[in-house]
Amino acid sequence: MTDSENTPPAPLRVTGLDGARERHGDRADLLVRSLRAGDPLADAVITEFDDLGRPARAALQRGLAEGRASVPDAPPAVAALLDHTETVPDWVSADLLEEGDLTSLAVPFHWSNLAFAGGSLTHTYSSPSIARLLVGTGRLTSTAPRRLAETGLWNASAILPGGLLRGAPGYVQTVQVRLLHARVRASATAHGWDADRWGVPINQADVARTWLDFTVVPFRFLEGVGHRLTREEQERLYRYWWYVGHLLGLDGEFFLGVDDHERAGELLDLVDSTADAPDENSRALVAALFDAAGARLASAPGSPMTEPDWRDLLHALARRYHGAHADALGIPESPLTPVLPLLAAAEAKARAHLLQAPGALRRAEEAGIAAFGGLVASLTDGTAYQEHASAG
Length: 392
Prior knowledge:
Layout: H1 3-6, H2 17-24, H3 26-34, H4 40-52, H5 54-66, H6 76-86, H7 94-99, H8 102-105, H9 109-125, H10 128-135, H11 140-159, H12 169-190, H13 195-198, H14 204-212, H15 216-223, H16 231-247, H17 252-255, H18 261-273, H19 280-299, H20 307-322, H21 325-328, H22 340-356, H23 360-378, H24 384-390
Helix pairs in contact: 2-3, 2-18, 4-5, 4-6, 4-12, 9-15, 9-19, 9-20, 10-19, 11-12, 11-19, 11-23, 12-24, 14-18, 19-20
C-alpha cells in the first residue's frame, strides 16, 4: 500500500493536498499524519502532573536543572521525558552547543528584532489553528507584550553559548515550552477542540512551523534587507536547530537533513501550501504584535526612531516578505516602503564588510552575545512556561 493509503483523513484545515503530493511526494502524507499527532512523552507528563501534583513537578524541575540521576525515584512519565532529553543524539555537535547559534547572534540586534516580529511571529500567527489557540480570552492588548517578551526570552536563552547544555537556561526553558504545549493540548481537547477540523492542538505540523519560524523564515526575511548567509552559516544554523527541534519533541523526519535554505524552503512550502488562509484571529494577533514590537523597539536605549516610525518600518518589511498574505494578515501599506531598497543596499554593504574584514564577524557575534545576554538579564518576571512547570 502507498503512504497515502495508510494516511488517515486530513483535517478540514488542510488545503491543496493534491498539489502538495505532486511537489513533495510522501512528505505530504507525513504532514497529514503529523496533524493528528501530539507529543506522547510530554502528554504523559501532563497527566502525571494532574495526578500527582507538586512531587511530579518538583522531580521534573530538579531533573532538568541537575540531571536525571538527581531524581532516581522520579515518576515514570517524568523519568521517560528526562531520559529522552538527556540522551543527546549522535548527530548533535558538542562544539556547536558550546558556541551557541552564532549565525543568529551575528545579526545586528535591531534587524534580529524586526525579523523576529515581522517574520517569525507573524508567520506563526498566520496559521488559523495556532491563532485560534493563542487568542484565548481576547485580551490581546495586555498579553501581546508579554508573549513577545516570553518568546524572545526563550529564543535568547536557547541561542546563547552553552544555552542548550544539560541544565542550562535554554535547555530547561525549551523543555518547559514543550510541556506548556502539552498543557494547551490537553486543555483544548478537554474543552471540545474540533480535531477533525483543526487537527490535534499544537500538533507535530504546528511544531514544525515553529521550527521553521526560527530558522528559514527570519533569514529569508533578512535577505530582503541585504543580509544573506553563506552556505557554511546556513549549515551551522540548521544543525544547531536540529537539537532545538529534538528538545521540543519534534519528529526528526521533519528536520534531519534540512541543512540549508533550499531544503528548509521546501518544508516551508509544504506547511504553507496546505494551510488555511489567515483569519480574523490571525489579524488580531498580528496587529497586537506590531503594536507591542513598535513600543519595544522605540524604548530601546539610543533608539533612532519613534514608536510609529518603527511600526511603519515593520509594516513595510512585513508586507514585502509576506507578499500575497499581507492583506489577509491585515498588514497596512507603509510610507517607508520606498526606502527599503536604500536600507537593503546599506545592509548588504555592511554585511560584505563583516565577511571580509579580519575579526569583524567575531566582533558582531560578541555584540550579539552581549545584546541577547542583556535581554535575558532584563526579563526577570516568570514566564507562562516557567510558571506552569513549577505551579501546583
